[in-house]
């Protein structure tokens, strides 16, 4: 093989490498925010769009929340979020965006009734400001979205409804929305393990409908918020027809409908699993992305 042939092969490989590099985003699997509010370091994962290192521009951001018992790597490891984001950006389905995935442990992303866990305060007052200083993020409402699955779907609804000045759009997948009846009739072990630290320990029946519960209930928040406030955020609500959370999502749809709050509501074939969330995340990001490009 002569020198000319070697040069051609080298150029071909170089151009192929550049082409791949330009269509593949960068994942930082673990970074840390030192939280004074929580008194500990909180891990998070970040997806940066393909052109991030080769530009000087600032990008819109989506905060992507994981589910119960998972952590900040869930959307990366099981959801393959980098693959879906790369593909959607390359196809022009979503604009280049930064995706931030914090570790929420089993906090449900809220402040507990006894003040021992103040994740909500941490997220709003420490986490978002810290991340938006580290990365080139367009730190304003019109370029900020939030999404998540299950517990993270609940969290995305909670933040969007409570802080409409912070988010342009929210896209909860299989959101953990419960009504009063479901909360009252949960098995004692399930309630204590999952919700006791949030709303009150060793409670049964109607005693579970505490002030803390109503303060953080998505359906109660929609009921008590004005339609004008609810309309400040665009909502994409998606839950499978075989999901145990279908009822709560349908009730949320009805509650928003009764207040004439525009929103997109999807019930697709599927259950509470990663197959459903992987097949829904691109549409969710596309919905949020339209808020960034209007």
Overview of this protein structure:
The protein has a single domain (26-178, 217-293), classed as 3-Layer(aba) Sandwich (Rossmann fold), CATH 3.40.50.1820. Helices cover 44% and strands 16% of the residues. The chain is globular. The protein is built from 13 helices and eight strands. Helix 12 (246-258) links the parallel strand 7 (234-238) and strand 8. Strands 1-2-4-3-5-6-7-8 form an eight-stranded mixed sheet, sandwiched between helices. It is of the alpha/beta class and 294 residues long.
Give the SSE map:
Elements: H1 3-23, E1 26-35, E2 40-48, E3 61-65, H2 74-77, H3 81-90, E4 98-102, H4 119-134, E5 144-149, H5 151-162, E6 169-173, H6 180-184, H7 188-194, H8 196-199, H9 211-216, H10 218-224, H11 227-230, E7 234-238, H12 246-258, E8 264-266, H13 274-293
Parallel strand pairs: 3-4, 3-5, 5-6, 6-7, 7-8
Antiparallel strand pairs: 1-2, 2-4
């Amino acid at each position: 093989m002569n020198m000319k042939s070697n040069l051609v092969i080298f150029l071909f490989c170089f151009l192929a490498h550049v082409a791949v590099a330009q269509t593949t985003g960068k994942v930082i699997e673990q970074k840390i925010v030192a939280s004074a509010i929580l008194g500990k370091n909180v891990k998070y994962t970040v997806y940066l769009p393909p052109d991030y290192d080769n530009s000087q521009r600032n990008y819109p951001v989506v905060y992507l929340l994981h589910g119960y018992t998972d952590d900040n790597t869930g959307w990366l490891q099981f959801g393959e979020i980098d693959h879906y984001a790369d593909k959607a950006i390359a196809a022009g389905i979503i604009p280049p965006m930064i995706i931030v995935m914090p570790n929420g442990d089993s906090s449900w992303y809220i402040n507990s009734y006894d003040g021992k866990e103040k994740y909500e305060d941490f997220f709003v007052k420490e986490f978002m400001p810290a991340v938006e200083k580290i990365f080139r993020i367009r730190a304003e409402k019109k370029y900020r979205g939030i999404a998540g699955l299950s517990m993270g779907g609940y969290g995305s609804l909670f933040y969007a409804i409570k802080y409409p000045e912070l988010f342009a759009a929210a896209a909860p997948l299989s959101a953990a929305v419960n009504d009063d009846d479901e909360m009252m009739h949960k098995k004692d072990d399930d309630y204590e393990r999952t919700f006791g630290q949030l709303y009150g320990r060793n409670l049964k029946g109607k005693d579970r409908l505490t002030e803390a519960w109503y303060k953080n209930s998505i359906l109660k928040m929609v009921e008590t918020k004005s339609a004008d406030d609810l309309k400040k955020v665009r909502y994409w609500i998606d839950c499978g027809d075989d999901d145990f959370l279908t009822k709560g999502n349908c009730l949320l749809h009805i509650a928003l409908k009764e207040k004439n709050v525009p929103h997109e509501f999807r019930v697709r074939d599927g259950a509470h699993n990663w197959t459903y969330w992987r097949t829904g995340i691109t549409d969710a990001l596309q919905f949020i992305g339209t808020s960034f490009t209007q």
